[in-house]
Give the backbone structure.
Amino acid sequence: MPYSTKKLFTKFLKWRYRNISNRTFIQIMSLIVGFLAGTVAVTLKNSTYFIESLLKRGIVFSENQLYFILPTIGLTFVYLYVKFVHKEPLQHAVSSIIFSLSKKRGLLKLKDIYSPLITAPLTVGFGGSVGLLGPAVKSGSAVSSNLSRLFHIDAKTRTLLVACASAGAIASIFQSPIAAIIFAVEVFTLDLTMMSMLPLLLASISGVLTSYFFLGNEILFSFSLSEGFKLKDTAFYILLGVGTGFASIYFTKMYFAILSLFKKLKSPKYKLLVGGIAIGVMLYAIPPLYGEGFGFINNLLDGDHLKALGTTPFDNYTDNIWVVIALLFGITIFKAIAMTTTIGAGGAGGVFIPTMVMGSALGNVVAKVINNLGLGFSVSESNFTLIGMSGLIAGVIHAPLTAIFLIAEITGGYQLFVPLMITAAISYLITKNALDYTIYTKELAKIGALLSHNKDQMVLGLMEMDDVIEKNFKPIHPEMTLGEMLHQSVSKSKRNLFPVLNDDKKLIGIIVLDDIRPMMFDTELYDTVYVKNLMHAPPEVIFYETDNMKQVMKKFQDSGAWNLPVIKKGKYEGFISKSKMLTAYRRKLINYSQ
């Protein structure tokens, strides 16, 4: 920033501090953040659709054979961008935001603003079977984070504004402001108070208005409710809830299984090649897997399953409804595979919209099976298509309220509130009991970076180990005599604990002052007793790289110790005292609760 501009900006900040209250400024910022996040979402959507429209004629002209190479071309462009411009591996959008809120005080890099706007359209536009919501939320959150840094906003408020950005992006894409607020609360575990409610609401409204301004009254799903909830269909909605619950477990397990397979391919080029070919084959056999899949959902809602399926190698058999059901069920199975393959191969995209596509297919399958069993039952296939989406969202990302309100808002189908609640609740309960963590949170839980609505766990997750490690302990060598230890370390230390280190600075034991107190004044022992004869193992050891603060607290509880040594990269780093840790915990809790 040039000096003159910096000087003017400093004057503006001083004027702001004097004339605008912090609460008012946050509300203004939430409007701005919502607008910018909405603009990001619109840009992302339009650039992706532009690429898809350019390629559409070629796909039709080649009789779908172009599907074989398009994903590989898109992934190659992404690979080149990441290698020469981004210069670090792409991260899962929502998981990286949660990690930033937990461990980096809500700070996101400047390149996180523009990288999703480049990599996601290239991935999805060329056929990658992922969604745009995650990249939109990541880019919008990065805008919010960097604006917060520019205006010297504190970490707690920065967290709120990042959540506002996610609400603005979701409200813009789905035109569903209430679901956008609930998503921020459920996924980012934000406390919904009056202090946070108003900024989230303002950001959502701003995001929706931005979408209307750029896209007009364009609606995501062309759906009009023809049948409301019927009590006699309750058992079928329960059945759908069970089905979407197990489908959510399959989706999550398949995600991690395929990613683990791609991790075995060390070279990004091999990942690109294997993934691109695999996606191409799937697209040729099942065209609806191309891109996000909103067109597929709309066709199912319109009752046109043949248009939803597109041109497939099985067109000669689609007069048989059971062949159609089998093909739709195939989309349910392969959407998770195609999505994860895209991500594993190096593509950029989210998992939220693929869950909607998979849920819509499964809901439609369940309705078609019920209607064609010949038992005299009849249910609305469009209603089941909608409610299937809510079941998958609730199960896969553990966000049942988001699932309920999102589907209700984007379709105007509030008359389906009861079946939405039934299906989403059952799916969530089944998945939550089977899987402790979601696609977003599993890896974060391993490193202790997971945010939680449990205030104790949340505060422990926000604490940094570096803030509580103490290094003012005098180390001693195992070959030191008692006299050398007393003169060189004990007499110069304010602590009653001494780490014993070998020549490689590795911890091999500890000595507590109480261990040597009876012999401290017996000078005859000064030259005959060595440190190695007096030292003993610590009651527990903290490993810097693998232990999170929750595990550290448990080690204190189990060992009964007041000080525990920290080992970093195999070497002694310092000690953590229980008193300092509890003091830091109390301060963090007070700050978090305000």
